[in-house]
Design goal:
The complex is a heterodimer of chains A (247) and B (583). Chain A has 247 residues and is an alpha+beta fold. Helix content of chain A is 59%, strand content 16%. In chain A, the strands form two sheets. A five-stranded antiparallel β-sheet of chain A has the order 7-6-5-2-8. In chain A, strands 3-4 form a two-stranded antiparallel sheet. Chain A is globular, with a radius of gyration of 24 Å. Chain B is 25% helix and 38% strand. In chain B, strands 11, 12, 14, 15 and 16 form a five-stranded antiparallel β-sheet that branches. In chain B, strands 21, 23, 24, 25 and 26 form a five-stranded antiparallel β-sheet that branches. In chain B, a hairpin with a 6-residue loop joins strand 25 and strand 26. The chains are: A alpha+beta (247), B alpha+beta (583). Chains A and B meet through helix 1, strand 1, helix 3, helix 5 and helix 7 of A and strand 27, strand 31 and helix 3 of B. Strand 1 of chain A pairs antiparallel with strand 31 of chain B, so a sheet runs across the interface.
């Protein structure tokens, strides 16, 4: 009896959470974007998240002409689901409304190739892949060890080393991807207009002026100043209140 | 004697050397309206006196030469003086250069003298001077509208010249144009001097406005307006009359100056100062108007940011609009239509930005804010413009600009990328997700296959070893069979026949396992012999054989379930006994 009560409670929790998301969708459909944001954010306050939720919040802010929160939520959605085309499309729409047009300097060379490869999967996915290779390694060892035919034995022996190599590659990819995830700290400028300074103090000479919605990468922290890098590679210090970190 | 002669010669030498030629000035510091007397003094009768060029001065009198020679107590003294009267033309540090004379074939020079000329000062009146009547008749007065204005609040400065009824001003020369440092000044041109009627010191007196200036203080604190100095030629009647009885007119040149004024400028209050305040003071209207808000590809629109009203219009900057980067905004065209009457600048100032949209879509332009200090209210006011949305009806989409390859495929069907609708389904996950990578589960899953490797190898080795041991295997099998049949016997304990069959089989297999013999070798004697040779208890051996025999008999003979139970227990007991003894 008690179990049934628990189950009902759990199910209703899930059901209730889903309805809040659905409520947001209904409000969005009727053009009540601000109330839709409230509905969606109540999911966030309940410590629940998903790429779709952030995407919908971003859409609401885009419709309300609030560029910085829109981009911020799209970026958050992309963190959870990096390969979603819809999110990338709407992010581009929002970016067209930002004031700053900062060139994205493409990275080149081996590091870029490496990153392109490791970025195919999230590091947790790489972890599962390496576990799979580990099992395959064991299977090919078994095949090698127990097969009587010489040809099979050779094939499995070769396969064994192949699997070991793949295992190492996937573990290395996971490590690389995780360190990249930890070191890359994107942030969105929320202040309408803010100075990027050459030193972490107000006296520092202004390097460039950024407007809301611009994406920057946080590199270092000194008190309430953040060293940031723009997408064109230039660096400077910014007040931590002017930006919000995505991760 | 010789010594006296030398002494006399020496003293003469001294006298010869005592040539004095110097410049003496009546004062080293004088006002611009004062005269300077310069004496070139010498104690010898020099020839060829060369006066210096008096740069920065005008010679009003001189040169006058004066020679005096006197004998006092047998001592003769000689003096020769050239005197000049000078009037400075400019302020500052002026130098009276060297004058030269020639005496006995030698040229003597004076030292240059430095004279400081300061602002015009009030001169003490000398009632006997002809110009006194001019003094009492001519007055230069400065009217300043406000002496404690706010920063950037306009003040007007009007210079008026009062003159007596009987005097005629024939000429005016501005000597010292006041410089309005720390002010933004606008001079209002006066085309013709017009005499007007006014009051001065309680008397009726005609006056003319000479100069009007509008000033905007650019600095807070005490600011000084420099005085204006004028040279005025004025015709004054004298007491003398000519033979026709007409009053004789005398022309007098007179220098007048209006005293310096200090203005204390109040800084604008810091309280409530908007962040975007750019220094506008006055009362204004602020507008941001686009020429159109819906346009097609390739069209442009002008965004006009304008401020109209009264105040320091030229002295602040207009706020700059901020547009999304999909709109290309060019540098503004700045226009000013500002008039400056005495009350201050009035008019309109505007920046016109040309904007060309690049991509289709709706683009908001943020409302602009303009703040100014309202002098009437004494506080800041902020005007916010309406938000503007620019609709670009067609044109390339924001996102396919990258993909567009000109001239690649003529008939390419371009599917315009649209702003994607919200997603309707989701799978919500708790926020604090533990990473699988790096977790204990991950490491154990990763390493378990490697841990299994030696186990598998060992297991296989063991199996091979077991497979290789033929005898051991047989014993094992028989043992297993014995147990199997024994348990089968237990199952069949209610069916007499199968029970005894199973029991017999169990015992046979037990013997096979323990004695390592085949079924063919199995005979009672043989069994007994082998068992005894293996140190088995003879009693147990006998019992065992009895039981096997009993099995054969009992199969066909009637027996109760109690005996079957008994036989089973007995078999178990014997087998366990034998097992202990044989091992």
């Amino acid at each position: 009896m008690k179990n049934i009560v628990y189950i009902i409670l759990l199910v209703s929790q899930v059901f209730f959470a889903q309805s809040e998301f659905a409520k947001g969708n209904d409000l969005y459909k009727n053009g009540k974007y601000e109330q839709a944001i409230d509905a969606y954010t109540s999911e966030l306050t309940a410590k629940k998240q998903s790429a779709e939720l952030y995407f919908n919040i971003g859409n609401c802010y885009y419709k309300l002409n609030k560029v910085a929160p829109a981009i911020y939520n799209y970026e958050k959605a992309l963190v959870l689901n990096p390969n979603d085309a819809d999110i990338a499309t709407n992010l581009r729409f929002a970016q067209k409304r930002t004031v700053d047009e900062i060139k994205v300097v493409p990275k080149v060379g081996f590091a870029k190739l490496l990153r392109d490869f490791t970025a195919i999967y999230h590091y947790n996915t790489w972890a599962w892949i390496s576990v799979a290779f580990s099992v395959l390694f064991l299977l090919s060892f078994l095949g090698y060890y127990f097969s009587a035919l010489t040809l099979n034995k050779r094939l499995f022996f070769f396969g064994m080393f192949l699997m070991l190599l793949m295992l190492l590659i996937s573990v290395a990819s996971a490590i690389f991807e995780k360190s990249h995830f930890k070191n890359e700290r994107p942030a969105i400028v929320f202040a309408e207009m803010t100075d990027v300074r050459s030193e972490p103090q107000n006296k520092g000479a202004s390097v460039v002026i950024l407007h809301e919605g611009t994406k920057v990468f946080v590199k270092e922290t000194v008190d309430n100043w953040r060293k940031i890098q723009l997408t064109d590679g230039s660096e400077g210090w910014i007040d931590s209140n002017a930006i919000r970190e995505v991760k | 004697m010789k010594r006296y002669l030398v002494f006399i010669l020496l003293s003469f030498q001294g006298l010869w050397a005592q040539v004095q030629f110097e410049t003496r000035v009546s004062k080293n510091t004088l006002g611009l309206n004062e005269r300077l007397q310069v004496d070139f003094f010498m104690n010898i009768d020099g020839d060829n006196f060369n006066e210096p060029s008096f740069e920065g001065f005008r010679v009003v009198g001189g040169p006058m030469q004066q020679v005096s020679q006197s004998w006092i107590n047998g001592k003769s003294s000689f003096e020769k003086v050239y005197t000049y009267y000078l009037l400075p033309n400019q302020k500052g540090s002026l130098v009276i250069k060297q004058a030269t004379i020639e005496y006995n074939g030698k040229i003597y020079k004076t030292n240059p003298v430095r004279v400081n000329v300061t602002n015009a000062i009030e001169q003490p009146r000398d009632p006997n001077d002809v110009s006194v009547s001019a003094d009492s008749n001519l007055h230069l007065v400065v009217d300043i509208s406000k002496t404690n204005p706010y920063l950037n609040e306009p003040i007007t400065v009007v210079y008026k010249l009062y003159f007596g009824y009987n005097s005629v001003v024939t000429n005016l020369r501005e000597l010292n144009k006041p410089k309005y440092n720390d002010f933004w000044s606008q001079n209002i041109e006066i085309k013709q001097l017009v005499a007007q009627e006014g009051m001065f010191n309680g008397e009726k007196c005609p006056y003319a406005i000479l100069k009007k200036v509008v000033l905007y203080p650019q600095k807070s604190g005490k600011l000084i307006i420099e005085p204006l100095s004028l040279d005025i030629d004025v015709q004054l009647p004298t007491n003398r009359r000519n033979i026709f009885g007409q009053m004789q007119i005398k022309e007098v040149s007179k220098r007048v100056s209006a005293g310096a004024k200090t203005i204390s400028v109040k800084a604008l209050p810091e309280a409530g100062k908007p962040a975007d305040f750019s220094g506008a003071v006055g009362s204004f209207d602020f507008r941001v108007t686009p020429t159109k808000t819906e346009l097609k590809n390739g069209e442009s629109l002008d965004l006009v940011v304008s401020v109209a009203g009264k105040g320091n219009l030229k002295l602040f900057t207009l706020p700059k609009p901020v547009v999304p980067n999909a709109l290309e905004m060019y540098d503004p065209v700045h226009t000013e239509q500002v008039n400056t009457p005495l009350s201050g600048m009035v008019g309109k100032m505007s920046d016109s930005y040309t904007i060309i949209p690049q991509y289709k879509g709706d683009y908001p332009i943020k409302p602009l804010q303009f703040s100014y200090f309202d002098l009437n209210l004494g506080r800041y006011r902020t005007i916010t413009s309406q938000p503007i949305v620019v609709k670009v009806l067609d044109g390339p989409m924001a996102n396919d600009a990258v993909a567009a390859h000109p001239g690649s495929h003529k008939n390419q069907v371009v599917v315009n990328e649209q702003f994607k609708y919200i997603k309707l389904d989701t799978k919500l996950e708790p926020m604090a997700v533990n990473d699988f990578f790096g977790s204990k589960l991950f490491y154990s899953l990763l390493l378990i296959p490697f841990g299994l490797l030696p186990i598998i190898v060992l297991a296989k080795k063991k199996k091979e070893a077991i497979d290789g041991d033929v005898v051991g295997n047989r014993i094992k099998r028989n043992n297993r069979l014995a147990k199997k049949y024994l348990s089968e016997a237990k199952k069949q304990i209610n069916n007499k026949e199968p029970f005894y069959v199973a029991l017999e089989k169990a015992m046979h297999n037990f013997l096979k396992a323990k004695l390592h013999i085949e079924t063919s070798e199995m005979s009672k004697d043989n069994i007994k012999e082998i068992l005894l040779s293996k140190n088995a208890n003879p009693e147990a051996v006998n019992e065992f054989i009895a039981l096997t025999e009993n099995c054969e008999i009992a199969r066909y003979a009637p027996s109760s379930s109690a005996t079957i139970q008994k036989d089973y227990e007995k078999a178990v007991l014997i087998i366990s006994d034998l097992e202990k003894q044989l091992s």
